Amino acid sequence: MKYYDLGDQKISAVGLGTWQFGSREWNYGSDYASSMARAILERALELGVTLIDTAELYGFGESERIIGRVLGRQAKDVCVATKVWPVYASEKYFALHAKKSSERLQSSKIDLYQVHFRNPAFSNSSLSRALDGVVSRDLAGKFGISNFSRYDWEDLERKFGRPIYSNQVHYSLLHRRAEEEIIPFAQATKHLVIAYSPLEQGILSGKFSFDNRPRDIRRINKHFGIDAIERMQPLLIALAKIGAKYGASSAQIALAWIISHPNVVVIPGASSVSQLEANVGAGEIVLENGEIEELNERSYQYEQSAMMPILRTLRTRLGI
């Protein structure tokens, strides 16, 4: 597996997202939080995963607590990243929330502290001063952001006067907006893009169909619509075909496609140890250029097909 330098830590190309730890939206049940989450974390360390991502919002702090109970102060070679929900931007607010996250994580200092989203109510100057409150109290070692534009990433780093090492964004074969500016900026500056929702909540695994769609929170995902699944078939077929060549699943190929991009790491979640192992296995797959190009083309076709009904409606109304 590839690793990237993030300050003084090595970040694995495949990390572990823990939104599902302690959350009820996924219908995993109470046993998941009490036993399976622990087993997943422990196996992740054994497999060389060095990026564990969470947030104060996940399970209203329960995700951080689970990680803290399992890892605590022992995970010296692991980067535990969490996020602050920036409803207010002040030194006191950020420092207080960083301290609470640190306590839940049972860590004296947060490895990577990320601003969860770009709140338009506050300027980057305000965010910079708020982060200064975390720095002055020595509550975090490194800083990142999530869902920021390229401009705001660069601007905040300049105002903060310290590296904003990473930007966590939505990136997958079905959502490629990050390729326009964010990924090129990360590559040019030796920063990282942390890709979340890499499998679009499982639709890219190829396990779902018209008659087999999830009944949990994923039911509101537009990619699980019957029309979307039909339009996605060429991409799903390509994933399965390439996977057969490597003895890999469609999900593993979708993950391998993401990390084929330099300076991009991925944080899929896992409902079981076996799923975690499969995700990590994707880090060993090196796709050929022709395979990457084929997936790019199928992905582009899916995106364009979504516009066809809109174009037909416009043409009808305009009489074209």
TrEMBL record:
Pfam families: Aldo_ket_red. InterPro entries: NAD(P)_OxRdtase_dom_sf, NADP_OxRdtase_dom. Its EC number is 1.1.1.-. Keywords: Oxidoreductase. Residues 14-297 form the NADP-dependent oxidoreductase domain. GO terms for molecular function: oxidoreductase activity. This is General stress protein 69.
